[in-house]
Design a protein that fits this description.
about 300 residues, alpha/beta, three-stranded antiparallel β-sheet, about 45% helix, globular
Length: about 300
Amino acid sequence: MSAALARTQSEQAFMVEGEFAFTEADFRKIAALLHGDSGIALPESKATLVYSRLAKRLRALGLSSFRDYCALIEGASGLDERQKMLSALTTNVTRFFREPHHFDHLRGHVLPPLLDAARAGGRVRIWSAACSTGQEPYSIALTILGLMPDAAHLDVKVLATDIDPAVVAEGAAGVYSQAAMAGVSADQRGRWFGRTDGFRGPAFEASDELKALVSFRELNLIGSWPMKGRFDAIFCRNVVIYFEEDTQSQIWNRFVPVMRPGAMLYIGHSERITGPAVSRLQPAGITAYRETGAAS
C-alpha cells in the first residue's frame, strides 16, 4: 500500500463513533481553524471532546456530518459559526476569588500605594486578560472596593477582555446564580450586589458601583492589542496552557511593554514564565511576577 493511500484511508476513518461521521480529516480542519483564529492547540486526544461539543451545533444547523460542518466554517459565510465553534470548544472554568492567594497579594502588597496615588489624582489600571464570564474582574473590583469604597469616582479601572463575545456579554450583564456566588462573602454580596431573577431562579446582579469599575471588551490575545496605556497589574491565569510553547513565550513577552515599572503579573498555578520575558518578570509570590525594568 502506498503512503498516500494509507494516509487517505486514515483520514477517512472515523475518529469517534456516533451520530455524525467524524473523520481524522474533519478533526484536522477544525483544529487548524481553531489554532489560526485563537492560537489554541487541539491534540488528537481531544477528538471525543470536539465531537461531543460540536455535535450540538450540527443538530442546531440541521447538518448530517462533520464534513458538511467543515465546509460551512471554511466558507465566507461561516464566520459567525466559527465564532460559535470557538465558544463551544473553549473552556470557561472560573469562579469568584479563584486562587485566593493572588487577591490576598493584590490587597496586601499592590493596591495600597496605587489607591493612595489615585486619591492624589493618579491613574490605576488592572487588566483581566482572559475574563471569561466576569468573576475574575469582579473579584479584582471587589478587592479594590474593600479598600476604597468610592473607587468608582476616581481614575481606577479594571479592563476585562476575552476572545469569546458570548462570555464578554455575560460578564458585562453581571448576573450570577446563587451557586456562582459561593466565593463572595455575605458582606460583599449585601453591599455590592442586588437580588434579581436569573434564567434558573433567584440570582444576584452586580451593582452600578461595581460595574462602573469594570470595562468588558472582546480581545484575541494572539491578535492586536489596541490599549494605549500601561497596567499596574495583569491577571492572565489558566489560559496560555492551551497554547503551544512558542505562543506562550510570545504572550509573556508582549505583556512586558504594557506593564508599568514594578507592575505585577498573576498567572495560573500550572503555568510558568518562559522566553525573553524571564529577564523582566521576576517571582514575587505564588505564581506572581513583578516587572523589574531590567534590560532584556
